[in-house]
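Regression report. Comparing outputs from two consecutive submissions.

Submission 1:
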Amino acid sequence: MSTTISTTTTPAWHDVTAPASDRVEALLTELTLEEKIAQLFGVWVGASSEGGDVAPHQNDMDDVVDLDALLPNGLGQLTRPFGSAPVDPALGALSLLRSQRRIAASNRFGIPAVAHEECLAGFATWGATAYPVPLAWGASFNPGLIERMSHRIGSDMRSVGIHQGLAPVLDVVRDARWGRVEETIGEDPYLIGTVGTAYVRGLEAAGIVATLKHFVGYSASKAGRNLAPISVGPRELADVLLVPFEMVMREGKPRSVMHSYTDLDGVPSAADESLLTGVLRDTWGFDGTVVADYFGIAFLKMLHGVAGSWGEAAALALTAGVDVELPTVKTFGAPLTEAVRSGVLPEAIVDRALRRVLRQKVELGLLDPDWDATPEALRDVGVDNAEGIRGTIDLDSAANRAVAREIAEQSIVLVSNDGTLPLAAPRRIAVVGPTTDDPFAVLGCYSFPAHVGVQHPDTPLGIELPTLLDSLRIEFPEADIDYVPGTTIDGGETAGISAAVDAATRADVVIVALGDRAGLFGRGTSGEGCDVESLRLPGAQQDLLDAVLATSTPAVVTLLAGRPYALGSAVTGAAAIVQAFFAGEEGTAAVAGILSGRVNPSGRLPVSIPASEGTQPSTYLAAPLARSNGVSSIDPTAAFAFGHGIGYTTFDWSAGQHGPGTIGVDGTATLGLRLRNTGDRPGTEIVQIYVHDPVASVVRPVQRLVGFQRVDLKPGESVELSIHVPADVTSFTDRTGTRVVEPGEIVLALGASSTDLRITHSVQLSGEARVVGFDRAFHPIFDEIARTAP
């Protein structure tokens, strides 16, 4: 191989007029094995708070990293330069700028690194907007709004020099005891795929490489335990767990995928060639990069026991289809080099991954001759004066907060209401419960304050986080508000419950604020590694709730949580139930606005609220024998089902003109709907379409969501819709493992939830079973035929 570069002509990899593949091949042929492998791993770093170079970030899984020794061969990625410790955004951008210049200057070819960050509910860095968590995105049933949010997240990241974002999570909730439920979009594959596609489109449009995770099955772990093994059949894999990835891959065009930690029927995802190459690349045509979940390749040796050495782990992962080791070099460094040198792994496998990595760097402009490490946010300031630029970058703009507020307001679900809400200027309000005066009660595990900020208690939060108590005092300025915590979130204390009961007794209405604290690995009640044995409210919160409900004061139960909980007597005894899923920095104001009526709630449940604490695993996607029946004493029926939610107005549903009752297996069914707002205020109905297959060649869920549409109507206004449902949406995996549309009867239903079906239309599919694949139709089309003014 050549070890010198010609200085008389422009290197071919710098030729921006040449195809990306030609530029990649030109550079690949010049690289030594060590230089190739250096492009296939990241180093976990932290930005300097003074604007200097990044420094390696160490934790229990890290070996000591010597950047001076690594950089002459190059570097593939920088891991979380902003998200490892609090740093002023401008100084973080300066630190990254200087680090990129150092990286490019240190290697023979001037190749910079790809910098990635977490962005699950906003750019996970100090001072950036904390948006609602993905479970709240699902509750909004508003993909367009989520796309606006992700574009803002991506624009903020790109402005300071970040290239790749580790989001969205497309795992389907199968067991709500799993701690990472808050990170998911819900329990329905279609909802997840539709909202996930919107998120990816927004992020990619901003120039950020979106990373789908976790591929695949992470959320189906046994007993809801983090990293536990998965045992699912091929149909559950194909028809539930893979569907969101398939939808987003085709419609969102993401450029990266992250493998899952878990093993599927004994094969770890990081070493599963059938998934990472067979499904992802050979079937779906994905040509981007597959990156490791943090330490996931090392886990092949440490946790899974399928590799006896770091080199074996590296060879397994690379052969399966993993291209980049994250967060830091462990197996893809010297162990991988030795595996190639010794003949254990062909160098061609390294080259295969390298082509994908270099192509992405070409697409990002990192191999252009005029590449400049200076990010957009620093182009008009003097980067030589670190202190002079401190505070000049705002990652929590008013426009960001406006979008965060809109998502919060549209995602909060009014679950039940006996007419107590909206509150009509009550004189005395008691507010009890442990999430009342907790600023962290609206934040998910991957928000910066909860994920990293808690390790730096002397550093300000960086954003304004009004508590629910703060927001209630603003919302009800004339009310006398009496606050008693009653208990903590998970401490189990009961001594304060009597004081809470006394406060409730004296009040006109009592707001019972319950829920979660997000954390990592057991340091919270929700979040990564914070799995639970049952869906009973944490600590003594159920005891507090029961005691307050026993008073004669109307009780409004308000949940600020990361998962659904069984609510016991509150299901029938509460005056109202309001569910917010970690609604972000604008969340408490949104909750207060719903309680006052300033906001008309329009959120719908993306996960079912269980009637019992111990019926997991259970979702609405249930076959007949998974529902309540006479052969089991356990009733898994939810207290409030997927898709449920009410508001402060009412809607009249009536059937419009349906299409023919018989269509071909390649045809389209048509449903007609007339919808009228019969209340006295503007409102939003979410029209949901479900399919029921009475007789199929394999067992099917009784109901399955195949479409939805938000419909806004003024008081007295009506709309007529014609909804066209392609037969493709009825497809499933048959006994041979083939996805087909089967002939026979299907029942299409329009409804307000999975259990509140208002209009049904039986359609006969005629013809022979039809095979469909990656190019099948995923969505119905909603046509507005007419709108009648009030």
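Submission 2:
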Amino acid sequence: MGSAVITARAAATFEPVGRSVATARAFVRDTLQGWGYNDVVDDAVVLTSELVTNAVIHAGTAADVLCLRTEDGVRVEVADHYPEREVPLQSSGLDFGSPDRENGRGLLLCAALAARWGVEYTPTRKHVWFQLDLPERPVGIRSAGPLLPTALLPVTDQRVRVAVVQIDHSGSIAAWNDDAAFLFGHAADQVAGKQLTDFVAWPHTPGTSTGIADALQLSRWEGSYGIRCADGRVTPVYASHLRVRDTDGEPSTVCLLVRDYERAVLQSPVRAPVSDSSSENRATDPFEVFIGSPAPDDLDGLLQRTVERARDMLDADAAFLLLATDDETELEVRATTGLPSARQRFARVPVEAGTGRYGSARMPAVHEDLTAVPGAVPLLTDTGMRSVVTVPLKVEGRLTGSLGIAAEAPGRYSNEEALRLQFAADRIALAVESARLGELERLRRGSLSFLVEASDLLAGTLDRDQTLALMAQMTVPTLATWCAVYTIADQSSDPYLSYVLHEDEDLIDGLKALLSKIAPPDPVPTPGARIWAAPSEAGHRAALSTSTRSLDHDAPLSMSTATRTILATAEAVGGETVVLPLVARNRVIGMLTLGKPSDDHFRQEILELAEDLSRRAALALDNARLYSERMAISQSLQRSLLPPGLPDIENVEIEVIYRAAGEGNEVGGDFYDVFPIHDGAYGFAIGDVCGTGPEAAAVTGLARHALRLLAREGFPGPAVLERLNAAILDEGARSRFLTLLYGELWPQEDGSALLKVVCAGHPLPLRLRQDGTVEPAAEPQPLLGVLDDLELYEQEVTLDPGDVLLCVTDGVTERREGTRMLGDDGLANVLSTCTGLTAGAVAARILRAVERFAAEPASDDMAILAMRVPEPPRI
């Protein structure tokens, strides 16, 4: 101890039984709290627990614990009575050995937490001692717990188990004490060297975004997660992490794990490097005195550090901090410590809860016993807390938040504690508000980027189903855990469940089934999000019914897949669910439903972002609807311009291939037709209207219907085309010139076919003979829609058995690849290779040749009409 003056001492001996470890912890805690050394209580209890465990469990002897108080700190000595042990050689350096050895974990923690420590050996005893120094502060008791009747002391299951786990810099388990083995069923040698993440069942503390790997890298972390036990169960734990470094600078993380309803906290005073004389004279920052240095640079870290320091400062069991909303009418829970869980994060309470100072967050308040005023502090309902002190956080007279501490015993706090807490709140209010504004600015920038990206994605599609999918994928998991989109076809239709998405794909089917069984939300056009309780209530009923049915049938412990799905779905919809209307062009066209899992709530910033997204999504969805309706109308009209089908002509094969250019077009400027005129006579036509699109399609309809009408009136081919020419010119400014090949066909008794054709400005038809020769089957004549007076004539062509007549539009002959064009000669060369092929095979070969000629998609309409007179069967 050197020259330090011992001002008090306390000693006790503990028998070599398991319960002695908990008794020793209580002895040290009570002793140090009675001395007013609450700053070092937690570290002392952790170290004592490990050293006493080594003595009574590993060495199997009684443990002597001696606490010595000095003006600067406390020294704790733990001795056992095991004489036979190996004394380490000083020259070999310290070797902590295996985590299972008695000199392993305790010495690791001593090196991490204590200011000084050592080991002393005698022939009959081993002393392990550690020194914990107090930070500079006025002499006196800092805090002390009141004397409580035994009936009011916290209840534990048997003895309190504190699992101590040491994690090295790589995330591997370096130490695993007996309590960890008891709680989780894994022996130390089974987990040593393995990653802690292999045993952690996340999700972590609800409402936070820190993963376990990230949490192990933080200098200090406190929260909840689950540990997978050896038998497959998941044990919820409350964890306290402290990141330390040894004398060689090697970092590691010490983790205290207890059952989720218990608390064990690691604390270690900041050991600042020795400063020069100039720094010693520097004025002390009141903020750093309270919050510690260095201060966290993020809002969540600052708030968590604040509640932890507030709890420690007034020896509280719990602490909480709330931030005011922009309108200062509500307070939002942003950080808690010591409460059963963090499920209250982002929950909201009113600023003015009632009359008088006890009902307003704008004034300090002391509640000696919450049972006398139920609901006075909504956040603490059903938490077991009795005494509460709350103080406001104010910046320039404006309420920015509220800080509170609570204890399980009544009557713990008075106005004196309220003044101390208010002093601390005043020190950190400006820093908290600055960090909050910084977070809001980052959120706004992130929201703007999110909305810009969402607008780009939604504007990039006019497909209704793709728009629905994009809406869901942009909200999950960025804004919500799950979402559902309801659509309304028209004012007389009920909302229809169109799309469901959950961040866990395995839950989508169960969620969809649950939502399908409940009535959809009312299509209210009022802007903003509104709470929808139906999914949560339906999930609760389904889970209760399933559990009751399982008990009635004496179900085995292992649940069926259906039961697990129902329970998982109920958990998924157990939190807050909100509905946002999808309003476009002053009409509700659907609803966007967002949901959270059990006991989780939406932040106001998220709801405002979701509302902005819903407005953009509604317009995109309505645009997709209008586009789909117009496309359906257009395609219906276009289909009416196509021939109903090809007639069966005796002894003549006919095949047509038609391709309209442009997205969504079924009919363009090219057209074809084959139709019966009278008994034994058939008309055929293939044409090309100048241009593409609706205007060309209108002339297409005129030409096709006029040809049928005039031909069936008995007019010959030239007269039919001359009258069609007049009809086109009558259209005036809307008229389009037209190239047209029109013909009439008569099958002959000898197996041939007689054709009379008129080629009005159209690519000439090609005749393929059996010997492979290809020749034009007509002469060119003037096109239609240009001249008033046309003098056209028809030409006769006889197709012998095996001959083919090929008619195409200029989309075939003018197919281009750079400066090359297929042309009439290229088409003739392809046709010459089609000898012996059926009409369908000829048309297919021509199409393949056109498509292969160029890599780019066709930019012009194409029509291919092939007629073939088959050869008589050979006998």
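Expected: both submissions complete independently.
Actual: both completed, but the second showed a warning that disappeared on reload.
Relevant detail on submission 2: The chain is about 30% helix and 25% strand.
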